[in-house]
Amino acid sequence: MKNDLLNGKPVRSILSFALPIMASSMLQYNYNLVDNIIVGRFVGTDALAAVGNVGSINSFIIGASLGLTAGFTIPVAQSFGAGDKKKMNKYAGNSISLALLIGLIIVIVAHILSTPLLKLINTPDDIIEMSSQYVNIIYYAVPIQMSLNNFNAISRAVGDSKKPLHFLIVSVIVNLCLDLLFVGYFKWGVVGAAWATALSQLVAAVLSAISVLKHNKELDIKKTDLLISGRISWTQIKLGVPISLQFTITSIGSMVLQTAVNGFGSNVIAGFTAAGRVEQLTNIPMSGLGVGTMTFVSQNYGAGNYRRIINSVKKILLLDIIVSVVCSIILFVIGPSVVTLFMSEYNEQIMFAAKRYLLAIAECYSLVAVLFVFRNTLQGLGFTYSNMIAGAGELFGRIAVALIFTPLMGFDAICYAGPAAWLLADIPLVIIYLTKERKFKKLAIEKGE
């Protein structure tokens, strides 16, 4: 059953649409969470540090590739809102083939870059081999991840946010079973965790593909639609590249920051990793609202409902800020207890680093709510260049903390790198949105809204 984002009460429609997205994000997050917990408890602190150490590199390569697919499917939602099903099916079909092709190219590039990047971020000698083993297996799944993300984005573009959730439930169960088998029983360590993640994502991708190509009533993608069109590909790439660059730019900042973290040793890396996973968990409600808002805005922009967009963004921003306050309290009160799940035995250094990081994030969490709302709104409107500008702000914030403030303030500076990045991303996003809002108000008046 799809959600009608073009009619009815906007906030209720967005919430109804976003809840399955939040649940899907929770399940996707469980790939990493389950890997980290099982690796930390069955293998040890060094293995947890090795898996966490590749996070910034994964964001650089995998995040950038997934950013492309986010741009590919914006015209799908806009065409759906405009009622142009022929164009919608062509954009959807082209995105499927384009995502797979680019994914295969990225596999080659990723394997060439992985080891040099691990050395570049000053990975400690005691974990570099494990980090390399883990990340190189994960990169084989890049085409799978891109296809999965693309199929899910197509479903959401036409108002269906529930089916991706069903497929991910199956996938997470597969991931958990394979993790326990490969890591817990066969003792394959980080290699087993990587294969478990890759295979479980393959399951979700196959199920999602079948749903989009065979069972989605809004779509009728024919074989001819799957043929790559140069003109359509150029349109989609122009939208996808700025989003991809946003991930790339922010990931460079994260890698620089990870270099600073790595200087504090494996225990601090493990604490930073565990706390980061807890933070990602509380990010999910705000992120889900952002993605829901993006689809809502895309469809209504295609339909020319400018006043509906303006009024809804204000309400969603207020709601997301309230959610961020609740998440801050959860981080501060419950976060440290969750961190202990990542350890086979209590480690004072790990806990100190984790608690300090969680406190800093909790103090500034509303900044990320603003980021999610305005970045996704502008993305839904097709102004994806704003993602790149915001990414540059995040890059500057993290690099400044890593290179300037960490030598002066130590690990405390690293804990506030995220909030500094969010603030510097929020400023241009708010300015760009307010400029577009004035334009849409004029268009709404001209339409008599």
Helices and strands: which structural class?
Answer: mainly alpha
Terminal CA distance reads 30 Å
Cα-atom radius of gyration:
21 Å
Please give the share of residues in helix. over 70%
Major sheet summary line: none
Q: Give the beta-strand count.
A: 0
Number of helical segments?
17
Could you give the order of the helices and strands? Answer: HHHHHHHHHHHHHHHHH
Give the amount of beta strand, in percent.
under 5%
Segments where pLDDT lies below 50 for 5+ residues? Answer: none
Overall, the morphology is globular
Q: What does the average pLDDT come to?
A: 86
Features of this protein?
85% helix, 449 residues, single chain, 17 helices, globular
Which SSEs are present, and which pair or pack?
Layout: H1 10-42, H2 45-53, H3 55-72, H4 74-82, H5 85-120, H6 128-140, H7 142-157, H8 163-185, H9 189-215, H10 230-262, H11 266-303, H12 306-339, H13 348-363, H14 366-381, H15 385-409, H16 411-415, H17 417-447
Helix pairs in contact: 1-2, 1-8, 1-9, 1-11, 2-6, 2-11, 3-5, 3-7, 3-10, 4-5, 4-11, 5-6, 5-7, 5-10, 6-9, 7-9, 8-9, 10-15, 11-12, 11-13, 11-14, 12-13, 12-14, 14-17, 15-17
Structure write-up:
- With 449 residues, this protein is mainly α.
- The protein is 85% helix and 0% strand.
- The model has no long low-confidence stretch (mean pLDDT 86).
Can you describe this structure in just a few lines?
It is built from 17 helices and no strands.
